[in-house]
């Protein structure tokens, strides 16, 4: 088949498929659904049996991962978010009971500087 014939055929198939999506080939529709047809006659060969097995495995695997995503991952994310929110609230509740930073006693061991920071006055951190 020549290059021009091939391009014309591809163009015809793509425009036909794009223009008439409701008139798809019934075989395509049947294979796109969950039903796997029984192979008979010349179609019953090792290649087609393996291909059907791969399709069935892919369908089962995708169904498993969809269920895992919906019924395991989403609730786990919600539980993790609630846990993080509770920890955040507990942390700030603890800080509310502490005296303000200006009123705390500064002990010698709290701000040990072996050398000055290279910005500002050398004693303040960036935070």
* Residue share in helix: 55-70%
Can you tell me the residue ranges where pLDDT is under 50 for at least 5 consecutive residues?
none
Q: Structural class from helices and strands?
A: mainly alpha
Mean pLDDT: 78
Tally of separate helices:
3
Strand runs, count = 0
Major sheet description: none
Q: Could you characterize what this model shows?
A:
The protein is an all-alpha fold and 127 residues long. It is elongated, with a radius of gyration of 34 Å. It has helices at 3-19, 26-32, 46-97. The protein is 60% helix and 0% strand.
State the gist of this model.
By secondary structure, this protein is mainly α. It contains three helices and no strands.
Question: What keyword list fits this structure?
Answer:
elongated; 127 residues; 0% strand; 3 helices; mainly alpha
């Amino acid at each position: 088949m020549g290059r021009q014939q091939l391009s014309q055929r591809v163009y015809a198939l793509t425009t036909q498929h794009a223009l008439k999506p409701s008139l798809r080939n019934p075989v395509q529709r049947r294979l796109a659904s969950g039903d796997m047809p029984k192979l008979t006659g010349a179609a019953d060969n090792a290649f087609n049996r393996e291909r059907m097995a791969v399709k069935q495995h892919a369908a089962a695997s995708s169904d498993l991962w969809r269920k895992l995503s919906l019924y395991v991952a989403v609730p786990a994310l919600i539980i993790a978010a609630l846990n993080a929110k509770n920890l955040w609230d507990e942390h700030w509740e603890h800080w509310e009971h502490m005296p303000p930073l200006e009123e705390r006693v500064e002990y010698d061991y709290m701000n040990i500087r072996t050398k000055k920071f290279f910005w500002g006055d050398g004693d303040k951190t960036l935070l």
